[in-house]
Amino acid sequence: MAKINQSLGEFIIENQSEFKYSSGELSRLINSIRLAAKVVNHKVNKAGLVDILGAAGDTNVQGEDQQKLDVFANEVFINTLTNREIVCGIASEEEDHFITIKGRNEKNDNKYVVLMDPLDGSSNIDVNVSVGTIFSIYRRITPEGTPVTIEDFLQPGSNQVAAGYIVYGTSTMIVYTTGHGVNGFTLNPAIGTYYLSHPNMKFPENGNIYSVNEGNYVHFPQGVKDYIKYCQKEEEDRPYTSRYIGSLVSDFHRNMIKGGIYIYPNTSKDPNGKLRLLYECNPMAMIAEQAGGKASNGFERILDIQPTTLHQRVPFFTGSKKMVEKAEEFMKNAK
Ligand code: P6P
């Protein structure tokens, strides 16, 4: 039973038995993410003071300018996860290929792979808008002791053993699930401890916030255009409120607390949308469903999609169940 103000460490120990593979490794894995998040949080909060703003000059596999904090966050999570002898492989938005991590004895006997977006929404850094880290955890499916392969990463989202995000906002929070509901922990920066502040988080079944970049309206599929017009119509409980931060973790987090839908659809410019299936949509979809919400590509459940490549994109509709279902209705009926 979750107790308000319980520390994250106590919570993990108390709920150890919930982890299907309760050898304690998954707990240690969540703990290492907690530590890495503290280090990144410290840097993100100081970003305005230290000369760490602005592009690092490189571009990542997405061809996007890498902000120095992107590079820093990527290194912190990789190093922290590597040093804990639990993970046999890592995939990151900032890395072209997956990284193999050998155990101390140079064997591949660690059981888990982690996929992550180390700093999502990083274009907001220079304008002091909240950003986030998104992580997804699977058990490897190839035999222990053999080299990790791409198959260990290309698993459907329904195989995730844990997923979560860190939002570096007005306060820093870790929100995660191991398949037994969603819990949110807020960092007390004075003592560096996370406390259970949002036990058993649930998406309201309905809501009145829609989050989409309407600047792309002319490029949207007809079903999305029809749904946006529906949200704006003076009728019943509408018009809804439009709220779009440009940071998936922040828009998702607000909508989970208040009720709402986030949409990043395919467009004529990006036929598969912008968001990445493996380390953005799958983890957020697991959290959404564990919180009673929904996540689809407009037609099918995100967690059922069989991935084909590490950095593949998918259209993303997620949030309050009834709002996602209504948007899917417009997608299906679009002329
Ligand atoms: P646009 C940030 O780059 C991100 O991946 C999400 O966090 C965010 O919701 C979206 O892209 C913003 O994209 O095209 O609306 O600026």
From TrEMBL:
Residues annotated for Mg(2+) 2 binding in this entry: 117, 120, 280
Cofactor binding, note field: Binds 2 magnesium ions per subunit.
Catalytic activity as recorded in UniProt: beta-D-fructose 1,6-bisphosphate + H2O = beta-D-fructose 6-phosphate + phosphate
Any Pfam family hit: FBPase
Positions bound to Mg(2+) 1: 93, 117, 119
Keywords: Carbohydrate metabolism, Cytoplasm, Hydrolase, Magnesium, Metal-binding
HAMAP family given in the database record: FBPase_class1 (MF_01855)
Annotated protein name in UniProt: Fructose-1,6-bisphosphatase class 1
Lineage of the species this protein comes from: Bacteria, Pseudomonadati, Bacteroidota, Flavobacteriia, Flavobacteriales
The encoding gene: fbp
